[in-house]
Amino acid sequence: MTNTPEPDDLYVDHAYDMVVVSNRLPVDYREGPGGETEWRSSPGGLVTALEPVMRAADGAWVGWAGVADREFDPFEHDGISIIPVPLSADELEDYYEGFSNDTLWPLYHDVIAPPSFHREWWDAYVRVNRRFAEAAARAAAEGAVVWVQDYQLQLVPRMLRESRPDLVIGFFNHIPFPAYGIYSQLPWRRQVIDGLLGADVIGFQRAADAGNFSRAVRRLFGYTTRGTVIEVPEPDGEVRRVVARHFPISIDAGGFEELARRPDIQARARQIREELGNPKTVMLGVDRLDYTKGIRHRLKAFGELLRDGRLNVEDVTLVQVASPSRERVETYRQLRDEIELMVGRLNGDYSTLGHQAIAYLHHGYPREEMVALYLAADIMLVTALRDGMNLVAKEYVACRFDNDGVLLLSEFTGASDELRQAVLVNPHDIEGLKDAMTEAVAMPQRERSRRMRALRKRVRDNDVANWSATFLKALTGSGQVTAGIPDSLQAAIAHLAGAERLLVALDFDGTLAPLVDRPEDARATDRALEAIRRLAAIEDTRVAIVSGRALDSLGEVADPPTGTLLSGSHGVELKLDTGPIQIDLRDAELAKLDRLNEIVESVASGADGAWIERKPAGLALHTRRLSANDGVALQHDAKERVEAELLGITVRTGKAVLEFAVRSSDKGESLNRLRQHVGASVVLYIGDDVTDEDAFAALDGDDVGVKVGQGKSLAAHRVRSPEEVAELLERLADARDAARGGASAWT
Ligand code: GDG
């Protein structure tokens, strides 16, 4: 159900196709001195990123309005439906200031400050997470996408899945996820991970964060993880695939550049420099006043440079904006005292009447002023000890359309994974930091400009719209599959055509061959077969068919050209250049296989139309000729009977087929063996079935995955049908032929 929110029907339940859930709403409630009230946008990057998506998808935003002990009705603001969640003053203290900001925040930032663990804080965290989950569940339409933001709401995904299994649930963690040795301190470590695993996709800032998370899942739950996929067993016996990977967040780069190009803002930047006494070099720090940001380290290094005479207060001024943050948490109050003491001392020691060493500003500023500061700064100092991303670094770069300015960036920020042309520093190494600061001061203009160009390209290419689109694509697949070969896939074909050693790995049924009732009748389309023959004849190009079928059956129906590699029974059997690799079952496995056959035969014998396909290490129960309901019931019965009696059997569900195997293997493992066997530098994999997802999960780097048809998938590209697969293969054969200068034995 979709609706266009009118003021009167905003109270309608289950109305929105897209719901964002975050601790804070994108609007602030303001009460003026005369008692007048208003809602004002708080224009963060997240709002900018999600605004177009929210408008297009008829979205609602669920969150807290920023005032305790007040209830607000849902309303519409600037085209977005706002659904406020109330918090009491006690909850604010225990759930937000306590558990979120004094337990999770320091723990997830590598215990830079010691985390506090209190059971009553945890209780409040659970209670408040449930309230957010309930509000989201009420708002979301059937099958809606719900995107939960950040560490304050880690239990929401599981709570939502329990009440609304129809939803597609995403989670994004804006802060780091720590190594297991640190994470394991959390008394509620299992509950938090279980809460997150309720999502379909869990996003992190860096690949290292996603890796830490997957390791914690393995250590605490023993679940299997393959690449970015975690296999989560559900109470109903099904295995759910959860994707945990990095989606580095970014900024509205165009928006920042637009502000930076405004003449009034440029004039303000000049004025700022004048007010500072026109020093040769302006250094700038912009941070929430937080112990993760490394402000003390920065001040210490700057102070020592002044002390040692390597910098002179006549030439250099440091502007430090420290925006007020979390002032009711004790650690933050102490930090403020320490920083202000340091600033006072340094200014006392080194400022002159005409030149201030440090201009310290404990304020929040409008964005225009921030941009003017970025333009006024010759050197931007980002010295965080640990930071999920650090948007300030990207904002500085986005504003410098003059290709000037130096970014000094801590290695411990997520941004440093992308912004490699910055002057990278370890802020704990004070000598190194000092050297980097003087290097920045002395950096020749040409080098500044070379570095800044590269940085700007990176930030422009991956802006925040890109970030949200990539996340939502991973969450929902590309939605409607359009006819023909999409442009992005055409570009991928061009890239594959130039690969050094290419492996083209293809599923058979539903990919090369249209699905038919009787498996023995399946045949690849003539066009696909012809394209495969051409590809197989091109130098440095190998073709493999990767199927769930037994190798014998695959050889018969696929009729592949000589030299085609085959993988059957989901990788249990392989036919390589060295000949077929026979599986060799142990006695116990053979006995298990016999019993498996007996059990499934007795179940299938009661159902007309069901049949069994035998495989070397298992069997497949086909239910395609039964009605959908009867098929599901029969599969359920077979699975229950097998699992009640036999241990260690791998069960997989395909399209109207249930497969059992006594030796586990999957198409991902098989693809890895094939890749190694032929020494491929790049792989193209095409498949239509859930079992092909293992192969998609095994792709990386420049590899290309193509899913045939609808449904959730890890593949980056899609086509509609085997006919389009044939067209894709034809185009690839053409392009590769051309790229290889006609070095084909076929032509
Ligand atoms: C968390 C993660 C991750 C700051 N002072 C003012 C002001 N700001 C703006 C900056 C920037 C934002 O606040 C701060 O973002 P950061 O990324 O630097 O840091 P956190 O607040 O810690 O954010 C972080 C981020 O989430 C996003 O995922 O990158 O790692 O810790 O946009 O410009 N803006 C205005 N006035 C100020 O005084 N207008």
How does this structure look, described?
The chain is of the alpha/beta class and 747 residues long. The protein has four domains: 7-246, Glycogen Phosphorylase B (Rossmann fold), CATH 3.40.50; 253-465, Glycogen Phosphorylase B (Rossmann fold); 483-582 and 666-739, Rossmann fold; 587-661, Alpha-Beta Plaits (2-Layer Sandwich), CATH 3.30.70. Helix content is 41%, strand content 21%. It is globular, with a radius of gyration of 30 Å. The model is unreliable at 1-12 and 743-747 (pLDDT under 50). The structure holds GDP-alpha-D-glucose. It is an enzyme of class 2 (transferase). GO terms for molecular function: alpha,alpha-trehalose-phosphate synthase (UDP-forming) activity; glucosylglycerol-phosphate synthase activity; phosphatase activity. Its EC number is 2.4.1.15.
Radius of gyration: 30 Å
Question: How many distinct domains?
Answer: 4
Oligomer category: single chain
Average pLDDT over all residues: 91
Distance between the termini: 55 Å
Q: How helical, in percent, are the residues?
A: 40-55%
GO molecular function: alpha,alpha-trehalose-phosphate synthase (UDP-forming) activity; glucosylglycerol-phosphate synthase activity; phosphatase activity
Function: Involved in salt tolerance by producing GG-phosphate from ADP-glucose and glycerol-3-phosphate (G3P), an intermediate in the synthesis of the osmolyte glucosylglycerol (GG).
Protein name: Alpha,alpha-trehalose-phosphate synthase
EC number: 2.4.1.15
